[in-house]
Amino acid sequence: MSDHVYRLLERHQKLDDLLRRVQSRRAADPFEVLRLKKLKLAIKDRINWLMQRRQLAR
């Protein structure tokens, strides 16, 4: 696994933790939740794209 993919996985995990904390608040901001979800999905898509590209290169 490349260093770049590893950093993206770490970032994805941190966003997941942050998203859980934000959602557990009594008055969670729905726009913040949406922003975090979109960012998390974008990172996941990037990881998948990099992993597929790596598989094709073999």
Q: What would you say this structure looks like, in words?
A:
The protein has helices spanning 3-24, 30-57. The chain has two helices and no strands. The model has no long low-confidence stretch (mean pLDDT 95). Helix 1 packs antiparallel against helix 2 (30-57). It has 58 residues and is an all-alpha fold.
Defining traits:
58 residues, mainly alpha, 0% strand, elongated
List the helices and strands and how they pair.
Elements: H1 3-24, H2 30-57
**DSSP, total strands:** 0
User: H/E series, N to C?
Assistant: HH
Shape: elongated
Number of helices: 2
Distance between the termini: 13 Å
- Uncertain regions: pLDDT < 50 for 5+ in a row? none
| Radius of gyration over all CA atoms, rounded | 14 Å
Percent of residues in beta strands:
under 5%
Largest sheet: none
Structural class from helices and strands? mainly alpha
What is the percent of helical residues? over 70%
Q: For the residues shown, what is the average pLDDT?
A: 95
Task: Give a brief rundown of this model.
The protein is mostly helical and 58 residues long. The protein has helices at 3-24, 30-57. It is built from two helices and no strands.
